[in-house]
Amino acid sequence: MKHILDQTLWSNTVYQWLIFLAIVLGLSLTVKLFKSVVIRRLRLWTQRTHTNWDDFVVGLAENSLVPLLYISSFYFGMKTLILAEKLENILHVAYLIGITFFVLKMISSAFRKFVYSFIRREENSQDKEKQAGGLIVITNVLIWILGIIFLIDNLGYNVTTLIAGLGVGGIAIALAAQAVLGDLFSYFVIFFDRPFEIGDFVVIGDKNGTIEYIGIKTTRIRTLSGEQLVCSNTDLTNSRLHNFKRMERRRIVFSLGVTYQTSGDQLAEIPGLVKHIISSRPQLQFDRGHFSGYGDFSLNFEFVYFVLDPDYTVYMDNQQAVYLEIFTAFEKRGIDFAYPTQTLLIGQQPVAVENTR
Predict the structure, then answer these.
(1) For the residues of 193-207, what is the DSSP string, one character each?
(2) Those residues with Cβ within 8 angstroms of residue 309's Cβ, 6 or more apart along the chain or in another chain
(3) Band (303; pLDDT cuts 50, 70, 90)
(4) Among candidates 208, 241, 239, 229, which has minimal Cα distance to 221?
(5) For a tag on the chain, would you pick the N or C end, based on fewer CB atoms within 10 A?
(6) CA–CA distance from 148 to each of 92, 153, 172, 315 (Å)?
């Protein structure tokens, strides 16, 4: 038996290979037991909690930590063997790459989870998740670049030259792509400052429409006429933008004029009459109404009210109803609306008669 164990196979005795197998199998069974018992019980426990962060941590351990433990089991088992220097270096590099991959994967997943959990606490979370997609992509690229630099440094290479080269290259790229980088920074301004979001109705200059998509470089707006308007993020952040979705209520000012043949009692009745018509509608709030002045052909009144719903259709429906009720009320009371008229008075001039005798 000892003779068999002392036999050499690939520079290692059979006894050493058995130790290697025992370590790998023992650690693998331990990891398997950890996954089957500990993680399984933790998953059952997380199903009874209200938060989803514990589900995320358990899922992260199952999908990233467990594979990393399996890789480590094989690596530590291989360390008990006598290997060629080249093979040992390859094994070490592969192990570092594996560790870096799974660690970066966990960091990236944790960042994504943090961003989405922050967004889901707010309204319109689905639209905001789409908006956050660009931020997550950029952050993941930075995480993986830093992770690769860290890996290269741990492999024994001098990363100072690499970092300096990336810095010079970054300056060259920044100078060559100023417009693109400007739009990228504007995207971060839009994401963090949130002057508008997906679904908001905005007016920019003579253009208006609903925000449909916010990308890293451009924002797409669906106009009222149906076409898609594509604007650079820099143009939007540098423009004066009217966001009607943020409107809490809409202020309406309108005037009407009646003829000069209207009696004094009728004039005194008009402000109260219009006030009653506006106040009777639940979505409207009356502000003021006054006899505002004498016009060239009319006696003018000015009224102000608020629409308590920012929706444009609600405003138009209520405005139409108010105008129709005013017209009907004036018609019943014999009050005539004024329109541009001119009255021409022609008088007969006296004729001088000459008296002759």
Answers:
(1) H-S--TT-EEEETTE
(2) 249, 250, 283, 315
(3) very high
(4) 229
(5) C
(6) 16, 9, 22, 57
Q: CA 44, CA 55: separation in Å to the nearest integer? A: 10
**The pLDDT of residue 165:** 64
Strands 299-307 and 250-258: antiparallel
Do the Cβ atoms of 168 and 228 come closer than 8 Å? no
State how far the Cα of 204 lies from the Cα of 229, in Å rounded to an integer: 11
Tens-digit pLDDT profile for residues 236-281 = 888 888 888 777 888 999 999 999 999 999 999 999 999 999 999 9
Q: How far apart are CA 106 and CA 100, in angstroms?
A: 10
Cα–chain-centroid distance for residue 193?
10
Q: Where are the alpha helices (DSSP H) in the chain?
A: 2-5, 14-33, 40-46, 53-60, 66-78, 85-119, 125-154, 159-176, 178-193, 233-238, 264-279, 312-333
Q: Which domains does the chain have, with CATH numbers?
A: 2-157 (no CATH), 179-243 (2.30.30.60), 250-333 (3.30.70.100)
Question: 305-348 pLDDT, tens per residue?
Answer: 999 888 888 899 999 999 999 999 999 999 999 888 766 767 65
The DSSP symbol for 351 reads P
Cβ partners under 8 Å of residue 210, min gap 6: 199, 200, 201, 202, 221, 222
Phi, psi angle pair for 262, to nearest 5°: -70, 135
Look at the chain and count its residues. Answer: 357
User: HEC profile for 215-234?
Assistant: CCCEEEEEECCCCEEEEEHH
Contact at 8 Å (CB) between 313 and 319? no
